[in-house]
Amino acid sequence: MAxxxxxxxxxxxxxxxxxxxxxxxxxxxxxxxxxxxxxxxxDPEVRxxxxxxxxxxxxxxxxxxxxxxxxxxxxxxxxxxHPNILAIRALEKPVIAAVNGVxxxxxxxxxxxxxxxxxxxxxxxxxxxAGIGLIPDAGGxxxxxxxxxxxxxxxxxxxxxxxxxxxxxxxxxxxxxxxxDGFAARVAEYAAGLAAGPTxxxxxxxxxxxxxxxxTLEEQLQMEAQLQxxxxxxxxxxxxxxxxxxKRPPQFKGR
Amino acid sequence: xxxxxxxxxxxxxxxxxxxxxxxxxxxxxxxxxxGIVSALTELDGDEEIRAIVLxxxxxxxxxxxxxxxxxxxxxxxxYQAARLDQWDTIRKIRTPLVAAVSxxxxxxxxxxxxxxxxxxxxxxxxxxxxxxxxxxxxGAGGTQRLTRAVGKAVAMDMILTGRMLSAxxxxxxxxxxxxxxxxxxxxEAKRVAAEIAAKGPVALRLAAEAVDQAYETPLSVGVxxxxxxxxxxxxxxxxxxxxxxxxxxxxxNFEGR
Lengths: 255, 257
Fold this sequence. Notes:
The complex is a heterodimer of chains A (255) and B (257).
Chain A: E1 4-9, E2 12-17, H1 28-40, E3 48-53, E4 57-59, H2 64-67, H3 73-90, E5 95-99, E6 102-104, H4 106-113, E7 116-120, E8 124-126, H5 140-148, H6 150-159, E9 163-164, H7 165-171, E10 176-178, H8 183-195, H9 199-212, H10 217-232, H11 235-245
Parallel strand pairs in A: 2-3, 3-5, 4-6, 5-7, 6-8, 7-10
Antiparallel strand pairs in A: 1-2, 8-9
Helix pairs in contact in A: 1-3, 4-5, 5-6, 9-10
Chain B: E1 6-11, E2 14-19, H1 30-44, E3 51-55, E4 60-62, H2 67-72, H3 75-81, H4 86-91, E5 97-101, E6 104-106, H5 108-115, E7 118-122, E8 126-128, H6 142-150, H7 152-161, E9 165-166, H8 167-172, E10 178-180, H9 185-197, H10 201-213, H11 219-234, H12 237-247
């Protein structure tokens, strides 16, 4: 079995981190598998991506055995985590972290880099880094700060407190919590719903929210105007308007 | 039919020149440079055209010099062919010239964009002077214009390490005027050019000349130069029209005289 499994169900691509005996901890093979999988995500036929873990963990973060073998941590991060985190943000379609279990350290960074987090009630969220004398990396400081705000993000990351799925939901860290028994079915349903959406418009919405992080209001309005001009020429917009007029549900094609 | 090396379009008062060597990411071969220069010169001589957009395609404005041509040349053959002299011709184009940059804008491509009056960049644009990786250095004004645009620190960083700038970095360093959505790089550049084209052509040329003088003269001389151009512009019919239109609260109709 490969360290990262990729499957397709209609327009949904599911990327499963697959080292269940290590709670899917990152090693070189996982980074490489994730990178290849995210390249495949660019296929226009893929309209929603799910990232999840095999077994009882989502991802426990960096495999520390391999961490100690890295000659230079900075270079290691640049070569392994950074391309994948950037690839998730560059993907113009929704990426769902289906957090099935333990989500810790760089695994947490991966989950928060995604667009949406659906958690099983068996999941837990652990910063991890402070527990071993490290700083949150792989985008952890960026996305946790963005999702929770500076005060809560700092309190959480520095205290290294373990959050239950319910607590994470109350904080807005995950968008939905599902009973473990129904988790896979709910994730499939959720992803299929998104994959049936107007993918280009959804992708541009994702870009616009990322843009808003470093833009002034004036710049943001400009970018909205430019991208709305693009959306206004899309097939999905024509279909959306036609369906609205005909009082039927739209059949979006993601074009 | 073979594809033209540059595509020329006219859209009202805006001329558009698109480099068209997509398979080579618009590497600036002798043929492409000649195509650009002749298209720009022709539009520059056309009174109907009041602003020009120079662009490439979505993937590349221009990725640099044609390396094969460069490798085949000797110092003497390059000197004799005087190919870099073409760059002076572009510099002398008097119609306002907007570079529409999407994708790679490297080496000679970056130098070409910097020769234009201003740069509108797609959010996906990448700017760089990577000549150092080939054991040479920028040869068409890169060390001079980049330094004037972004300052010594960033220019040295780019030229000595070959570091590429993102569009956002290029904006914050002052290399580009605007960053736009990647889908809109050409439309937005045309929109900027159309805004320029609606102004008085005499004043536009004098204003661009005055700005360019800022890089050629000490401040006191530049200010004096500007003052003289201001008087000259005031003597134009367009200035009479512009000032009257303002007082009469109506839009001006500039004739370019």
